[in-house]
Design goal:
30% helix
């Protein structure tokens, strides 16, 4: 990461050459709905695409509450110049005493294929290790999501196992690559 700004509610604002990872803001609701209502983004998620803008407001409210309590570290992935949300990166299931957490991420299809997800993930992981002292970060992905598997391996993750029939999304039973 290029710079780290003061923390807002425990979540720091981080910058890379092209991105700003910052805490969510109330004005992110429209961009967040656009992201999570896109079937291409949600194809391998554990919940179906959103159909109503109110879902974005509810999600944002929960994320802000989790951020305030220190249970999660949710970042909006924003273009550094415009500061508009183009994706999300979240550390969750944070177990400080065990020095571990899980990570989840998404990026607008219009911004995929340019290395932005890897840039954001590397930056968020550096914060998790350097600032939070984590020694383990886990990712739970659909094994059919080859792009996500490649991204994780690119930034240093190692596939440890397969959990069969772990998620049910839109009536489909899905496995997890861990």
């Amino acid at each position: 990461c290029v710079r780290m700004h003061a923390m807002s509610n425990g979540v720091p604002t981080l910058e890379t050459p092209r991105l700003r990872l910052r805490p969510y803001r109330a004005e992110d609701v429209e961009a967040m709905f656009a992201l999570y209502s896109d079937p291409r983004v949600m194809r391998y998620w554990s919940f179906p695409p959103w159909t109503e803008a109110a879902q974005a407001r509810t999600y944002l409210d929960r994320a802000l509450a989790g951020m305030d309590s220190g249970e999660i570290f949710p970042w909006a992935i924003a273009e550094r110049d415009s500061d508009i949300l183009i994706g999300a990166l979240t550390l969750f299931s944070l177990h400080v005493e065990q020095l571990r957490a899980e990570v989840g991420y998404s990026l607008s299809p219009d911004h995929q294929g340019r290395g932005l997800a890897a840039e954001a993930l590397r930056c968020g992981l550096a914060c998790a290790i350097d600032q939070l002292g984590l020694v383990r970060v886990e990712a739970d992905i659909d094994p059919r999501n080859q792009a996500s598997a490649r991204l994780l391996e690119k930034v240093g993750f190692v596939r440890e196992g397969l959990l069969r029939k772990r998620w049910r999304v839109n009536g489909e039973v899905c496995d997890t690559a861990f």
